[in-house]
Amino acid sequence: MSGPLPLQGLRVLDLASFIAGPVATTVMGDYGAEVIKIEPPGDGDPQRKLGQAHSVPQHPVNYCWHMTNRNKRSVVLDLKNADGRAAFDRLLATADVMVVNFPLKVRERLRMRYEDVKHINPKLIYASMTGYGEQGPDADQPGFDSTAFFARSGLLDGLTYEGGPPAFSLPAQGDQMTGMNLFAAIAMALLHRERTGEGSEVGTSLHASGLWSNAILAQGALLGAYVSPRPPRTKPRSALANQYRTSDGRWIQLTIVREDKLWPELCQAIERTDLLDDPRFETTDKRRAHATDLAALLDPVFAGRPWLEWRERLRRHEITFGLLGILKDVPDDEQAVANGAVVASGQADMPRTISAPIRMSFAPEPVTPGPGPDHGAHTAEVLAELGYSTAEIDRLRGSGAIV
Fold it and tell me: What is the mean pLDDT of residues 30-43?
């Protein structure tokens, strides 16, 4: 489809660091917005060095930075410097959206709260990302996705096996989810502005997003209802919602919800129709009561054939299942490519990347992902667009207000 992207013409100021806040502006940039990343002097956004962390795969390409900051421009301003702040205010007057994740006390100290900036641009959408929200006893508590999203929300508790140590989260999963929530809030604020002409403040937090992701278990907890600790795979709550290993070492996840219809189909697919006459497995309740016995019977059955054969057999009988993918599968996943989840980039040393999980019939394809910007690469360019002369830019650089 030809025509403009839906966010084309919007200017977004990204003052956020690490991942959750910048994810929201990454998606905005993918769909046409101009994103200007405001970084401090020195090392800039700490996300630039995340690729060196022990918890992420190591590679010479700084892919953590590029993926979260693709197609943005970097402007380095010292917001503590009066001239640097003046330059920011001039830029802010031209913006549609401002995204921040500074701790609340830092916002107050830098005069970066909504009430500090809205008079400069009354139509501004001020988007706030926090760890635990902006009210309550933990409002000033720093939060990362491992602590606020996964740990505090009960997600890790729900993933922990009975009697085992607590589960661990994986890098940035909560950040990616929370960034999309902030993007949704910004989109609604833009719609509100379109209808009323008013700017507004919107926000989300890692903690609230973790609770939303864990809503089924968390809602039960609000009612005083809890599931028992997660049992080991050999003692499942349901043998038909369990994982089984194939002869070639892959794992299959069975998720059979409509047991009345699919239990006979499964017995045919595994060539064990004799199980239909076993009194232990006559009904759903009996299969649940004897789940350990049924899992013990199914284990050697699935171990007797390779994954590709099971895929064909289970599909033929319309069994609900999935392969437990391993990361080495991702580069060759044709389904991901066919549906635009993995796309070509415009960056030679990172030729493919992950796309935002959004599809729209009314818009052309998103902007081709390019590299994240070098620190301060566009400072002079953006200031010149604001009307600063070369001499003024040189003076600001000399005073340390900009880099």
Answer: 97
